[in-house]
Automatic annotation (TrEMBL):
Hydrolase as UniProt keyword: yes
Localization terms from the record: Cytoplasm; Nucleus
Gene name per UniProt: CASP14
A GO biological-process term: cell differentiation
InterPro entries reported for this sequence: Caspase-like_dom_sf, Caspase_cys_AS, Pept_C14, Pept_C14_caspase, Pept_C14_p10, Pept_C14_p20, Pept_C14A
Caspase family p20 domain span: 29-136
Keyword set, alphabetical order: Cytoplasm, Differentiation, Hydrolase, Nucleus, Protease, Thiol protease, Zymogen
Record-linked PANTHER family: CASPASE, CASPASE-14
Protein name: Caspase-14
CDD domains xref list: CASc
Cellular component, GO, one term: nucleoplasm
Principal localisation: cytoplasm
Subunit relationships: Heterodimer of a large and a small subunit, both processed from the precursor; the mature active form is a p17/p10 dimer and the intermediate form a p20/p8 dimer.
Amino acid sequence: MSDPHPLEEEVYDMSGARLALTLCVTKAREGSEEDLDALEYMFQQLKFESIMKRDPTAEQFQEELEKFQQAIDTWEGPVSCAFVALMAHGEEGLLEGEDGKMVKLENLFEVLNNKNCQALRAKPKVYIIQACRGEQKDPGETVGEDEMVMITQTIPTYTDILHIYSTVEGHISYRHEQNGSCFIQTLVDVLTNRKGPILELLTEVTRRMAEAELVQGGKVRKVNPEIQSTLRKRLYLQ
């Protein structure tokens, strides 16, 4: 008996508006302008209406997200998805504003969830976080050669969200002073030049970053992104 709901049909409708917000602290973050340029190019290529704000304070991180949510909920016509890029110094669960104060990531994430942003209810919300999540440095390791059915008319509050962190929990995130961050540059290259569902593309981003060797203080370091997803369908940007 064939599956009445084949996987390929379970895709997000991307025919409506695509909106993006980038909040980036450039102060004491050399290379961040290159990352902003790369993201701007990516959003143009993927047909997003993009807003960029430089050097927000901790309070402004929250305020700009709330303004973005209000703009989405009052948008003329349907909205298909939203991207939010957050770039700053940070610690696990925290981002540092231009003023040196901290804002909680969970407070920023809550603004666009299914409860608080009606226009994005059941629609994909993608967060790109380029920030340290601790102080640990990864020198790398040597590798050897050799269904349950539920029928319901509601959805959970926190579905349809994708968090793309530049590094795993507890670790440093690297940024080159001239070239920008390996994470943003690789992410933009893959999302603009490859086609396929976003989770498959992010696997390619992780593969490329795992192969890259970053030198910091004369020592080779490894870094890989971390992807957390509650997407319910396949998300195609191309």
